[in-house]
Amino acid sequence: MRSSARHKRFKLKSEINVVPYIDVMLVLLIIFMVTTPMLNSNVDVNLPQANAKSMQDKKDPVIIAVDQGGQLYLTLGAEKHQPVDVATMKLKVGAFVKANPQVSVLVAGDRDGKYDGVYQVLADLQQAGVAKVGLMSAPESGAKK
What we know:
The chain is α/β, with parallel strands linked by helices.
């Protein structure tokens, strides 16, 4: 009788102890939670050079010009530029881009004008459904080729 009681007491367990695995998983989770925000702190931005070449586009681009006083001028395709208000610009550009999705939309701002005018045009174009917008500039007069 003693041998059967001793045999039951020292019987091997066939269960897996998962507590250490849970501890390791929680430590790894904390490490990843701490290090992930540090990975995204630096953003690489490729800025264009001052002596960049002009774009060669197959179609005539849509150009929205903002003068020093904040007045908007719109050039659609081969048309001459004409003064427009914000609502008209949104409607015309939105319809033109929906009809021609491959057309380039460019914003030209006056050098002496306020940045707020160009920024507002970019926001209005986004509301009109334009996905990609470029900024126009004149090449430097002293640029070497």
